[in-house]
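sorry for the late reply, my laptop died twice this morning and i had to redo everyting from scratch. anyway the thing you sent over, i finally got around to it. pasting the sequence first so we're on the same page, its 310 residues, then the predicted structure underneath. double check i copied it right bc i was rushing
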Amino acid sequence: MSVFGGFKIDGDAVVAKETGAVIPLTAGIAREAWRIVSFVWLINAVRATRIVKGREPRARISFFPTKPRSFYAIWPVCQLADVRIVDDPDEADLHFYFEDREFLLAPPAAPSNRPVFNIGCFDIRKSVVARVFEETFGYGYEIDPVDHRGQAVEKSEGNGKHDGRIIECPLDRPRPGQVYQRLIDNTFDGREHIDIRTPVVGGRIPFVYLKRRMPERRFSNDNMRVDLVDADAMLSAEERARIVDFAAAMRLDFGGLDILRDRADGRIYIVDANKTDMGPPSALSGPEKLKAMRGLAGAFAELVDKAVAV
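ok and here's the structure:
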Protein backbone atom coordinates (compact mmCIF):
# COMPACT_ATOMS: atom_id res chain seq x y z
CA MET A 1 0.00 0.00 0.00
CA SER A 2 1.37 3.43 -0.94
CA VAL A 3 1.77 5.60 2.15
CA PHE A 4 1.18 8.88 0.35
CA GLY A 5 -1.11 7.81 -2.50
CA GLY A 6 -3.97 9.78 -0.94
CA PHE A 7 -2.23 13.12 -1.52
CA LYS A 8 -1.29 15.28 -4.48
CA ILE A 9 0.91 18.35 -4.91
CA ASP A 10 -0.88 21.50 -6.02
CA GLY A 11 1.42 24.48 -6.40
CA ASP A 12 3.00 25.21 -3.03
CA ALA A 13 0.77 22.85 -1.05
CA VAL A 14 -0.03 19.18 -0.52
CA VAL A 15 -3.74 18.39 -0.90
CA ALA A 16 -5.58 15.36 0.53
CA LYS A 17 -7.50 13.89 -2.41
CA GLU A 18 -10.54 12.73 -0.41
CA THR A 19 -11.05 15.68 1.93
CA GLY A 20 -9.45 18.60 0.12
CA ALA A 21 -7.42 19.45 3.24
CA VAL A 22 -4.44 21.65 2.31
CA ILE A 23 -0.98 21.27 3.88
CA PRO A 24 1.50 24.05 2.97
CA LEU A 25 4.76 22.84 1.43
CA THR A 26 7.41 23.90 3.92
CA ALA A 27 10.92 22.86 4.84
CA GLY A 28 9.45 20.67 7.59
CA ILE A 29 7.24 18.63 5.24
CA ALA A 30 10.07 16.23 4.32
CA ARG A 31 10.84 15.68 8.00
CA GLU A 32 7.17 14.94 8.73
CA ALA A 33 6.99 12.53 5.78
CA TRP A 34 10.09 10.69 6.98
CA ARG A 35 8.59 10.33 10.48
CA ILE A 36 5.42 8.79 9.01
CA VAL A 37 7.34 6.37 6.78
CA SER A 38 9.64 5.35 9.65
CA PHE A 39 6.67 4.56 11.87
CA VAL A 40 4.97 2.52 9.13
CA TRP A 41 8.18 0.50 8.76
CA LEU A 42 8.24 -0.07 12.52
CA ILE A 43 4.65 -1.35 12.55
CA ASN A 44 5.34 -3.61 9.57
CA ALA A 45 8.34 -5.04 11.43
CA VAL A 46 6.19 -5.73 14.50
CA ARG A 47 3.54 -7.38 12.32
CA ALA A 48 6.14 -9.53 10.53
CA THR A 49 7.50 -10.72 13.88
CA ARG A 50 4.01 -11.79 14.96
CA ILE A 51 3.42 -13.63 11.69
CA VAL A 52 6.72 -15.50 12.06
CA LYS A 53 5.67 -16.54 15.58
CA GLY A 54 2.48 -17.98 14.12
CA ARG A 55 0.01 -15.67 15.85
CA GLU A 56 -3.48 -16.12 14.48
CA PRO A 57 -5.67 -13.04 13.93
CA ARG A 58 -8.36 -12.50 16.55
CA ALA A 59 -10.72 -11.42 13.75
CA ARG A 60 -10.88 -10.33 10.11
CA ILE A 61 -12.19 -6.89 9.28
CA SER A 62 -13.18 -5.20 6.02
CA PHE A 63 -13.46 -1.45 5.48
CA PHE A 64 -15.98 0.26 3.25
CA PRO A 65 -16.34 2.20 1.02
CA THR A 66 -12.55 2.76 1.21
CA LYS A 67 -9.62 1.11 2.99
CA PRO A 68 -7.50 3.20 5.37
CA ARG A 69 -4.00 4.01 4.26
CA SER A 70 -1.17 3.46 6.69
CA PHE A 71 -1.12 7.07 7.93
CA TYR A 72 -4.59 6.64 9.47
CA ALA A 73 -4.57 5.53 13.12
CA ILE A 74 -6.82 2.53 12.55
CA TRP A 75 -4.20 0.87 10.30
CA PRO A 76 -1.44 0.41 12.93
CA VAL A 77 -4.14 -0.30 15.52
CA CYS A 78 -5.38 -3.27 13.49
CA GLN A 79 -1.81 -4.58 13.10
CA LEU A 80 -1.11 -4.33 16.83
CA ALA A 81 -4.52 -5.73 17.84
CA ASP A 82 -4.03 -8.82 15.62
CA VAL A 83 -7.02 -7.83 13.50
CA ARG A 84 -6.45 -8.76 9.86
CA ILE A 85 -7.65 -6.33 7.20
CA VAL A 86 -9.25 -8.19 4.27
CA ASP A 87 -10.52 -6.92 0.92
CA ASP A 88 -13.46 -9.28 0.53
CA PRO A 89 -16.31 -8.43 2.95
CA ASP A 90 -17.53 -12.03 2.69
CA GLU A 91 -14.31 -13.13 4.41
CA ALA A 92 -14.71 -10.61 7.25
CA ASP A 93 -16.00 -11.23 10.75
CA LEU A 94 -16.95 -7.58 11.05
CA HIS A 95 -16.90 -4.34 9.07
CA PHE A 96 -15.81 -0.74 9.59
CA TYR A 97 -17.44 2.24 7.89
CA PHE A 98 -14.45 4.31 6.75
CA GLU A 99 -14.96 7.41 4.61
CA ASP A 100 -13.10 10.70 4.98
CA ARG A 101 -16.31 12.66 4.62
CA GLU A 102 -18.22 14.61 7.24
CA PHE A 103 -21.81 14.29 6.03
CA LEU A 104 -24.21 11.79 4.49
CA LEU A 105 -27.98 12.11 4.31
CA ALA A 106 -28.43 8.65 5.84
CA PRO A 107 -26.31 5.78 7.17
CA PRO A 108 -24.45 3.86 4.45
CA ALA A 109 -25.47 0.33 3.54
CA ALA A 110 -23.38 -2.29 5.34
CA PRO A 111 -21.79 -5.13 3.32
CA SER A 112 -23.53 -7.77 5.47
CA ASN A 113 -25.42 -8.27 8.72
CA ARG A 114 -22.18 -8.79 10.63
CA PRO A 115 -21.18 -6.20 13.29
CA VAL A 116 -20.21 -2.80 11.85
CA PHE A 117 -18.21 -0.04 13.56
CA ASN A 118 -18.93 3.67 13.05
CA ILE A 119 -21.83 3.04 10.65
CA GLY A 120 -24.10 5.38 12.61
CA CYS A 121 -21.51 8.16 12.60
CA PHE A 122 -22.33 9.74 9.25
CA ASP A 123 -22.73 13.42 10.20
CA ILE A 124 -19.82 15.09 12.00
CA ARG A 125 -20.35 18.65 10.82
CA LYS A 126 -19.34 21.31 13.32
CA SER A 127 -22.94 22.37 13.94
CA VAL A 128 -23.92 18.77 14.71
CA VAL A 129 -20.97 18.34 17.10
CA ALA A 130 -21.98 21.57 18.87
CA ARG A 131 -25.63 20.50 19.16
CA VAL A 132 -24.85 17.00 20.47
CA PHE A 133 -22.30 18.46 22.87
CA GLU A 134 -24.87 20.85 24.36
CA GLU A 135 -27.45 18.06 24.64
CA THR A 136 -24.91 15.83 26.41
CA PHE A 137 -23.16 18.34 28.67
CA GLY A 138 -26.00 20.78 29.36
CA TYR A 139 -24.07 23.86 28.22
CA GLY A 140 -22.77 24.99 24.84
CA TYR A 141 -20.63 27.33 22.81
CA GLU A 142 -22.58 28.16 19.63
CA ILE A 143 -23.46 31.83 19.20
CA ASP A 144 -25.65 33.89 16.88
CA PRO A 145 -23.16 36.22 15.17
CA VAL A 146 -25.91 38.76 14.49
CA ASP A 147 -26.79 39.17 18.18
CA HIS A 148 -23.45 38.35 19.83
CA ARG A 149 -21.29 41.23 21.02
CA GLY A 150 -17.51 40.90 21.07
CA GLN A 151 -15.03 38.38 19.72
CA ALA A 152 -16.04 34.98 18.33
CA VAL A 153 -14.64 32.20 16.13
CA GLU A 154 -15.74 31.63 12.55
CA LYS A 155 -14.91 28.26 10.94
CA SER A 156 -16.06 25.92 8.19
CA GLU A 157 -18.71 23.27 8.79
CA GLY A 158 -16.40 20.71 7.19
CA ASN A 159 -13.91 18.49 8.94
CA GLY A 160 -10.13 18.98 8.88
CA LYS A 161 -10.15 22.47 7.33
CA HIS A 162 -8.26 24.20 10.17
CA ASP A 163 -9.54 27.54 8.89
CA GLY A 164 -10.83 29.04 12.13
CA ARG A 165 -10.41 32.78 12.57
CA ILE A 166 -11.26 35.30 15.24
CA ILE A 167 -13.88 37.87 14.25
CA GLU A 168 -15.72 40.77 15.87
CA CYS A 169 -19.47 40.49 16.30
CA PRO A 170 -22.18 41.46 15.57
CA LEU A 171 -22.19 40.61 11.87
CA ASP A 172 -24.66 42.00 9.37
CA ARG A 173 -24.44 38.90 7.18
CA PRO A 174 -22.99 35.59 8.42
CA ARG A 175 -21.07 33.76 5.70
CA PRO A 176 -22.81 30.71 4.18
CA GLY A 177 -21.30 27.36 5.16
CA GLN A 178 -19.68 28.77 8.29
CA VAL A 179 -20.39 28.17 11.97
CA TYR A 180 -19.94 30.69 14.77
CA GLN A 181 -18.72 29.83 18.25
CA ARG A 182 -17.70 31.65 21.39
CA LEU A 183 -13.96 32.28 21.70
CA ILE A 184 -12.51 29.79 24.19
CA ASP A 185 -9.24 30.60 25.93
CA ASN A 186 -7.66 27.14 25.86
CA THR A 187 -4.36 28.22 27.38
CA PHE A 188 -3.02 26.99 30.71
CA ASP A 189 -0.57 29.85 31.09
CA GLY A 190 -2.08 32.54 28.86
CA ARG A 191 0.47 31.80 26.12
CA GLU A 192 0.40 28.25 24.69
CA HIS A 193 -2.91 27.09 23.27
CA ILE A 194 -3.57 23.45 24.15
CA ASP A 195 -5.95 21.06 22.46
CA ILE A 196 -6.80 17.94 24.44
CA ARG A 197 -7.02 15.41 21.62
CA THR A 198 -9.04 12.57 23.06
CA PRO A 199 -9.24 9.14 21.39
CA VAL A 200 -12.40 7.18 22.17
CA VAL A 201 -12.55 3.45 21.42
CA GLY A 202 -15.62 1.43 22.33
CA GLY A 203 -16.47 3.79 25.18
CA ARG A 204 -12.91 3.86 26.52
CA ILE A 205 -10.44 6.75 26.65
CA PRO A 206 -7.00 5.09 26.70
CA PHE A 207 -5.05 8.39 26.96
CA VAL A 208 -5.05 11.94 25.60
CA TYR A 209 -2.65 13.91 23.44
CA LEU A 210 -1.84 17.44 24.56
CA LYS A 211 -1.27 19.41 21.36
CA ARG A 212 0.54 22.67 22.07
CA ARG A 213 0.43 25.60 19.63
CA MET A 214 1.50 29.22 19.62
CA PRO A 215 -1.23 31.91 19.39
CA GLU A 216 -0.65 32.62 15.70
CA ARG A 217 -1.10 28.90 14.89
CA ARG A 218 -3.90 28.08 17.34
CA PHE A 219 -6.40 27.02 14.64
CA SER A 220 -3.88 25.09 12.53
CA ASN A 221 -2.65 21.51 12.83
CA ASP A 222 0.92 22.73 13.24
CA ASN A 223 1.86 21.52 16.72
CA MET A 224 4.79 23.01 18.53
CA ARG A 225 4.84 19.97 20.80
CA VAL A 226 2.66 16.95 21.57
CA ASP A 227 2.60 15.13 24.91
CA LEU A 228 1.10 11.72 25.62
CA VAL A 229 -0.77 11.94 28.93
CA ASP A 230 -3.01 9.69 31.06
CA ALA A 231 -6.64 10.66 30.55
CA ASP A 232 -7.35 10.93 34.27
CA ALA A 233 -4.58 13.51 34.64
CA MET A 234 -6.43 15.92 32.36
CA LEU A 235 -10.09 14.95 32.69
CA SER A 236 -12.19 14.27 35.77
CA ALA A 237 -14.20 11.06 36.14
CA GLU A 238 -17.40 13.00 35.45
CA GLU A 239 -15.90 14.62 32.35
CA ARG A 240 -14.73 11.27 31.03
CA ALA A 241 -18.20 9.81 31.55
CA ARG A 242 -19.79 12.73 29.67
CA ILE A 243 -17.27 12.36 26.83
CA VAL A 244 -18.18 8.68 26.50
CA ASP A 245 -21.87 9.66 26.45
CA PHE A 246 -21.13 12.20 23.71
CA ALA A 247 -19.31 9.57 21.61
CA ALA A 248 -22.25 7.19 22.04
CA ALA A 249 -24.69 9.91 20.95
CA MET A 250 -22.53 10.54 17.86
CA ARG A 251 -22.41 6.75 17.26
CA LEU A 252 -18.63 7.01 17.24
CA ASP A 253 -17.10 3.60 18.02
CA PHE A 254 -13.56 4.56 17.06
CA GLY A 255 -12.31 8.09 16.56
CA GLY A 256 -10.84 11.23 18.07
CA LEU A 257 -12.30 14.33 19.70
CA ASP A 258 -10.82 17.81 19.94
CA ILE A 259 -11.49 19.14 23.43
CA LEU A 260 -10.69 22.61 24.76
CA ARG A 261 -10.64 23.58 28.43
CA ASP A 262 -11.66 27.19 28.96
CA ARG A 263 -9.27 29.06 31.22
CA ALA A 264 -12.09 31.38 32.27
CA ASP A 265 -14.72 28.90 33.49
CA GLY A 266 -12.64 25.70 33.79
CA ARG A 267 -15.11 23.64 31.76
CA ILE A 268 -14.33 21.46 28.75
CA TYR A 269 -15.82 21.90 25.27
CA ILE A 270 -15.83 19.28 22.50
CA VAL A 271 -15.40 21.24 19.27
CA ASP A 272 -14.61 18.50 16.74
CA ALA A 273 -15.24 14.80 16.18
CA ASN A 274 -13.20 12.74 13.71
CA LYS A 275 -14.15 9.22 12.62
CA THR A 276 -11.12 8.78 10.31
CA ASP A 277 -8.39 9.84 12.69
CA MET A 278 -4.86 10.18 11.39
CA GLY A 279 -2.03 9.38 13.69
CA PRO A 280 -0.16 9.12 15.78
CA PRO A 281 1.00 12.77 15.76
CA SER A 282 4.34 13.05 14.03
CA ALA A 283 5.72 15.28 16.80
CA LEU A 284 5.80 12.29 19.17
CA SER A 285 8.95 10.20 19.45
CA GLY A 286 9.01 6.68 18.02
CA PRO A 287 8.56 4.96 21.42
CA GLU A 288 5.68 7.32 22.33
CA LYS A 289 3.97 6.63 19.00
CA LEU A 290 4.20 2.90 19.59
CA LYS A 291 2.95 3.31 23.18
CA ALA A 292 -0.03 5.33 21.96
CA MET A 293 -0.99 2.88 19.23
CA ARG A 294 -0.64 -0.05 21.63
CA GLY A 295 -3.01 1.75 23.98
CA LEU A 296 -5.54 2.16 21.20
CA ALA A 297 -4.97 -1.42 20.03
CA GLY A 298 -5.74 -2.80 23.49
CA ALA A 299 -9.06 -0.95 23.60
CA PHE A 300 -9.85 -1.92 20.00
CA ALA A 301 -9.10 -5.59 20.69
CA GLU A 302 -11.68 -5.52 23.50
CA LEU A 303 -14.21 -3.87 21.19
CA VAL A 304 -13.61 -6.48 18.49
CA ASP A 305 -13.83 -9.39 20.94
CA LYS A 306 -17.19 -8.16 22.23
CA ALA A 307 -18.52 -7.66 18.71
CA VAL A 308 -17.60 -11.09 17.38
CA ALA A 309 -18.83 -12.81 20.57
CA VAL A 310 -22.39 -11.57 20.04
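The chain has two domains: 7-123+286-309, 126-274.
thats about all i looked at so far, will dig more tmrw
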